[in-house]
Specification:
Largest sheet: 2 strands, antiparallel
Number of strands: 2
Strand content: under 5%
Shape: flat
Oligomer: single chain
Helix content: 55-70%
Length: 283
């Protein structure tokens, strides 16, 4: 019986059929959990319709720099989600599903990045199960179906941390060079995705990523990585500091401008009418 099972497992046709089956199951899971029924229900809460309205205004006016709500600058959040939603409105039309599509794509990118890391660290079987199990969690399903900044922020931060793992040498294996080489591509991608995370939800991305790497090096007694951490975040030539912190002044200045704008706006104007933005506005 054991020999028969082993022969079946070693059969090329059986292995090909297994790969096809796994691929179809993973693709179906990703689609059902992230992309199906994006517009099944209308906008929920005050944030979803507000963010979608700002993105719609950005798409209609082609002003990709200043988010506006009812014609007034609105700088409560950075612009990454607005860019994504406005682009989806231009490509697929204005709808609830298009407003939530950036979050679904962000969830997919984060899942693929974690699957690649699992593949390098633990092997193909772990990566396959991650692709099946992670999309079915309540948090991933819920936030991938929300027109909000949470999933773009989490996705960009996740991909930045995956790049940081490469920079720190955690993905090295037997096929890696004996003499470690500086992973310049990973450094550039780390700075790129960290900058996008800042543009998604502000400087919290720098604090979370830097704190996570620092305490990991401290707890795991790998103090030799701390100088590399300072290189990632403090060196003027580092991609992590050339892209991410460069976006912080934009967010902080914008927040101050938003406070001034809200303080000088007349009562019962745009502030009182935000709740009037509903799914019917996008029909």
């Amino acid at each position: 019986m054991t020999e028969t099972t082993a022969s079946i497992a070693n059969n090329p046709c059986t292995r090909t059929a297994a790969r096809i089956g796994w691929t179809m199951l993973i693709l179906a899971t990703l689609y059902v959990c992230y992309f199906s029924h994006l517009g099944a229900i209308g906008f929920v809460g005050p944030d979803e319709p507000r963010y979608a309205w700002i993105a719609r205004d950005m798409a209609e006016t082609s002003d990709w720099v200043t988010p506006r709500l009812y014609g007034k600058p609105w700088f409560e959040k950075p612009v990454l989600y607005y860019w994504g939603a406005a682009l989806c409105f231009k490509l697929f039309g204005v709808s609830v599903a298009a407003a939530r599509l950036p979050s679904a794509v962000s969830a997919l990118l984060a899942t693929l990045a974690l699957a690649w890391l699992a593949l390098r660290l633990y092997g193909a079987e772990t990566a396959r199960w991650l692709l099946l199990l992670l999309p079915t969690t309540v948090g991933m399903i819920g936030f991938s179906h929300a027109a909000a900044t949470d999933m773009p922020f989490s996705s960009m931060l996740t991909m930045a941390m995956v790049c940081a793992a490469v920079v720190l040498g955690l993905t090295r294996n037997e096929s890696s060079p004996v003499i470690p080489q500086t992973p310049w591509l990973a450094l550039v991608l780390f700075g790129f995705f960290l900058g996008l995370a800042v543009l998604a939800k502000g400087p919290a991305a720098v604090i979370l990523s830097g704190g996570a790497i620092f305490f990991w090096a401290l707890i795991s007694k790998r103090s030799s990585f701390i100088p590399l951490l300072s290189r990632l975040f403090a060196s003027p030539l580092s991609p992590g500091t050339s892209s991410a912190p460069a976006a912080i002044p934009v967010f902080s200045t914008s927040s101050s401008s938003s406070t001034i704008s809200n303080a000088t706006s007349p009562p019962n104007s745009s502030t009182s009418s935000r709740s009037g933005i509903t799914a019917q506005s996008f029909s």
